[in-house]
Amino acid sequence: MHGLSDNDIGMGAAVSVGRKRNVVFTNARVALPDRMIEGTVRVEDGLIASVEEVGAGPSSYAGDEMIDCDGDILMPGMVELHTDNIEKHVVPRPGAQWPALPAAIAHDAQVASAGITTVFDAVAVGAYEKDSARLLMLQDVCDALEDGTRHGVFKASHIVHLRCEVGFGGLEALLDPLIEKPRVGLISIMDHTPGQRQFTDLQTYRNYYMKKHGYTEGEMDQYIAERIEDQKRFSAKNRAYAVGLAQKHGFAIASHDDATAEHVEDSVKDGMTIAEFPTTFDAAKASHESGLAVLMGAPNVVRGGSHSGNVAARDLAERGHLDILSSDYAPAALIHAAFLLDEQVDSMSLPEALATVTCNPARAAGLNDRGEIAVGLKADLLRIEEHDHHPLIQGVWRGGRRVA
Predict the structure, then answer these.
(1) Are 54 and 45 in contact (CB under 8 A)?
(2) Which pTM was predicted?
(3) pLDDT over threshold 80, residue 311
(4) Phi, psi of 397 (to 5 degrees)
(5) CATH class for domain 77-369?
(6) Cα 91 to chain centroid, rounded
(7) Domain edges within the chain
(8) Looking at beta carbons, which pairs linking 57-64 to residues 24 or more positions away fall under 8 Å?
(9) Mapping DSSP to helix (H, G, I), strand (E, B) and coil, where does residue 128 land?
(10) Less crowded by CB within 10 Å, the N or C end of the chain?
(11) Are 373 and 32 in contact (CB under 8 A)?
């Protein structure tokens, strides 16, 4: 994946130098990809050195640190593929822009405390509003993520997810200087033209954007007309350009808001591996059956449905068409939603539910060094206490080092 290595990804310098660190987690319910075991996990120099079931391994261990999990769950650190949470920290209030690096550090602390040890920070490449805060922050955010990683100030691993708005006329000019940046690892193709995909119902679209931007009826009419014209002029060309760049650089590519079988066919043709937030059951089913990993919002699970009136993530899980959860705009939703899937979907076991936030997103994005508790992989780990049907995070480790 674009040459990203352990030392490239957040806190690399901090975990790769100095005295080797050994940690032993005992008396844990260890979440493996296909089952739960009672056992012990040994970490050496930031990697998982052994996984031993009770009764199958030695009775004593030598380590720098012994952690008795007291029967709590030990699971892999979560991998988040699509969150724009960093935008809330850069612009915490309309018109108030925060310095990008302090904002990124605050965002990092929030996602790490939520159990996310690898985060793909989604930044918008293209926006339609005049003087859009998203466009103004784009370069600064990418630079801050690169600087913070270089100087080892982050708790989580940070990778940039470029959200390419194909109806935006200036997409190429924005994308070209970003594509070569070392933190980039995922490209998604977006088309928020009114009347299709996320907002097939124009009235829902009108209500959403009038509330969001304070438009009058007349301003909204003009906005819709401009967006439809932009799609006609730019969408096909920009899509081909962004997909071509992603393929050239070996990035994973995600579709976004596919709603029809035709949308899915286009995604497959373009070599996409992830289907973000399909809006209909038919699109999700077609994506899953075509080999795309179907990603849905964890807030959709927690709230019991889509805030846009689209297909419910839980319904897809019950039919076997949900592969990945994303916290989207609410980092704390990710761990909560995974445990809700286990609790509420009869066909889904706890290991399968946890896979939607660990190994499934890691593999879909091309990260093969994390997402599972297995010998040789990164020791990104969470200790979870199940309390009144809600998971409580008792500790977060990245590369064997406690970060939250």
Answers:
(1) no
(2) 0.89
(3) yes
(4) -125, 135
(5) alpha beta
(6) 20
(7) 77-369
(8) 61/24, 61/26, 62/22, 63/22, 63/23, 63/24, 64/21, 64/22, 64/23
(9) coil
(10) N
(11) yes
